[in-house]
Amino acid sequence: MKKLTAICLSAVASIAISAFSANAEDFKIGLSNGWVGSEWRTQMIDEAKAAAEKWKEKGVNIEVVVQSANVDVPGQIAHVRNFISEGVNAIIINPNSPTAFDPVFAQAKEAGILVISTDAEVSSPDATYVGIDQKAWGAAGAKWLAETLGGKGNVVAINGVAGHPANEMRVAGYKEVFGQYPDIKIVNEVNANWDQAQGQQAMQNLLATYPDISGVWVQDGMAAGAWKSIMDAGKTGQTAATGEIRKDFIDIWTKDKLNSGASVNPPGVMASALNVAVLMLQGKELKEPATAGQYKNAMYLPIPFIDSKNLAEAATQLEGKPGYYSYTSQLSIEDAEALFK
Amino acid sequence: MASAVANPRPASSGIKRLFERFPFLPALMILAVLLALNGLYQPRSVSFIGMTGLVKTYLALIMLAIAQTYVVFAGDIDLSAGAIVSLVNVVIVVLMEQWGGSGLSVMAALGVGLAVGLACGIVNGIVVAALRLQAIVATFATSIFFTGLALYVLPVAGTPAPAAFWRTYGGRFFEIPFVLYAVVVLAMVIYVLARTRLATQLLAIGDDSQAAFQSGLPVTAIRIRGYALCGIFAALAAFCITGDTASGDPLVGGKMTLFSVAAVVLGGSALSGGFGTVVGSLIGALIIGLINSLVFFVGTPSEWQNLVQGLAILVALMAGVLVGRRARA
Predict the structure, then answer these.
(1) Which of B47, B156, B167, B290 to mutate to test the interface with A (most CBs of A within 10 A)?
(2) Which pLDDT belongs to residue A221?
(3) Is residue A319 a contact partner of residue A263, using CB atoms and an 8 Å limit?
(4) What is the residue range of the signal peptide feature (chain B) (predicted)?
(5) Chains A, B: CB contacts under 8 A, how many?
(6) pLDDT digits over A257-285, tens only?
């Protein structure tokens, strides 16, 4: 009930504000999220909504419309078509497929709609990607691990969903880094589908098969599970493994003094994308055009890294938050403005 | 209603016969209500362009729901339908690229795609009907196998389909969108298939496989043929998805499987087999699409969208079952 009241109030407030500020700029931005299986996605949308609110201080009214549900690829194409029917100014999408949206994004562009993808790159020349470079994300964790191990040792990798573009890019990232360390040997690589239970199971199997593992490169969403197996096996002291950015993991990390490091894929990426989108809608031009990445349409955001040096800082940011809350960072309006002419 | 008036018997029995003759009537009513609601909340969504977009987006699910219907007729189920879509999708996209993307090579790739779908269907049929494994578990296993094959053919999503292909799917001929022609052809195919012996035989097996066997029907062969037909329609679904997405993605169909089952049930078919219509499944797929859009157009807050969508599908299911039962009682 409280929530409903809050929604009503904010609706009334936004109507009131839009009525009083007829001269202000008004933009309608559609957010599409095609998977709701993790709190990370929920936080991503909440941060984007909050970022839209902040534009009010600058005299820009942003109405955010959200479509967020577990859908298949056609279902998310329908999201985009619905946004076109609704007449939005911009669409920000966390896409379920890198390539499947080319035709529908072309339609959106024809209708004069700005399309920005975040969290996962898309191949469409009609869209811009604003988010982190997943390959660099994978490389950062690998670099930390290699340096922590002093450049030698047996390493295993636990990956997400085979064939998922972000997963493949992360894999390419760590392979490149480990390739530069001739004494680091990747003894096995397994897929645990970004699932904590499967990550824990996979780690158990790996520990049983290879007693001499000194390093584990594991992706977020599975690292807490993998660490649980490591701790259960009593190998906490002898193992270095990548970690997670969720509060509950950071707490364990601090308490048990784990030898861990975590690349941050911040849920704030959609908020960053929204700030960039608004500036683009205002007709501003990027200082450096977004031409990075394999599809030549990407604008990469910085990737924070948490290790023992700044762990306490991360813990402070997350103090008082629920256990599922992730460490985050985003481009503020000012940060984003600095990127434009 | 015309037949009810012309009939001297009480009107209720006329309606009853109408529902018996057309078991998808409840689904059709739900579809009409949903269309009206969508139009009410977002008039542009029921414009000609909006409707074309709806068909373009959901034609793949329609095809997959039809595929599912033929195995459900016999009381079986195919949990690998979505994986077949993924496999055919990557096979045709890779072949089109390797063969140069001309009109002829596109047709050849589609031919191979149909053959792949058929082969997957026959594998399912043999595993379920000949080796007598439980359909739900066996096709779950083959779904993992087919996904593995798809990942082998194309390890990561990418590889654009030739423009000739998706521009045809998304384009117009004589000012009429291509997908509408596809719907007309599909309607004719369904009409013909409904009159074949296979459809009746599948229903007979679903109704009572023991009786069907005792009356001399080759039950195993017929069930395999049902799965084969399912495989072919799954391949057609893959063509649609390739047309709408213009690319290969080894995981594209995975989530569609259960939606196809839901569409079949929404259309008034019984999962236990022996009762149902293909037209109903087609309507069921559109109902799912319209519910997804309506949830957005009425302005549901994002954190409630999954819940409302699930509830709406449940309500549609209950409404269909209750109306159908009342009318047939």
Answers:
(1) B156
(2) 87
(3) no
(4) none
(5) 135
(6) 999 999 999 999 999 999 999 999 999 99
Which candidate, A234, A233, A228, A238, places its Cα nearest to that of A259? A238
Contact list, A69 vs chain B (CB under 8 Å): 292, 295, 305-306, 309
According to the model, what pLDDT value does residue B6 have? 41
Nearest CB to A70; choose among B156, B251, B306: B306
- Tokens found for residue B83: 């994986």
Residue corresponding to tokens 């043929």: B225
pLDDT at B8: 47
- CB-hemisphere CA count at 13 Å for B111? 6
By C-alpha distance, the chain B residue nearest A33 is: B302
> Which residues of B fall within a CB distance of 8 Å from A164?
156, 251
Q: How far apart are CA A135 and CA A115, in angstroms?
A: 23
Blockwise average pLDDT, block size 10, chain B, 329 residues: 42 72 86 92 86 89 95 93 95 90 87 96 94 92 95 85 82 85 92 89 89 90 94 95 88 90 90 88 93 89 86 87 72
Could you write out the DSSP letters of every residue in A86-155? HT-SEEEEE-S-SSTTHHHHHHHHHTT-EEEE-SS----TTEEEEE--HHHHHHHHHHHHHHHTTT-EEE
Contacts of B57 in chain A (CB under 8 A): 74, 77-78, 81
Q: Supply the DSSP symbol for A329.
A: -
Instruction: Please report residues of A whose CB lies closer than 8 A to that of B244.
Output: 74, 77, 100, 103-104
Task: Round to whole Å and give the CA distance between B239 and B114.
Answer: 9
ipTM of the complex: 0.77
Q: Where in chain B are the domains?
A: 59-254
The partner residue sitting opposite A36, judged by closest CB among B82, B170, B306, is B306
CA of B251: which chain A residue's CA is closest?
Answer: A163
Main-chain phi, psi angles of A20, to 5 degrees: -80, -25
DSSP string, B242-303: HHHH-EE-TTTTTTHHHHHHHHHHHTT--TTSS---HHHHHHHHHHHHHHHHHHHHTT--HH
| Interface with A, mutate which of B59, B167, B249, B258 (most A CBs under 10 A) | B249
List the single residue in A72, A86, A123 with the smallest CB-CB distance to B259.
A72
Q: What angle do CA A63, A66, A70 make, to 5 degrees?
A: 175
% of chain A residues with pLDDT over 90: 78
Nearest residue in chain B measured CA to CA from A105: B245
Torsion angle defined by CA atoms of residues B35, B37, B38 and B42, in that order, rounded to the nearest 10 degrees: 140
Nearest partner of A48 among A24, A70, A31, judged by Cα: A31
- Name the residue among B245, B254, B305 with its Cβ closest to that of A69: B305
Largest CA distance in chain A: 69
Domains annotated for chain A, with CATH where assigned, are 17-132+267-304+326-338 (3.40.50.2300), 134-263 (3.40.50.2300)
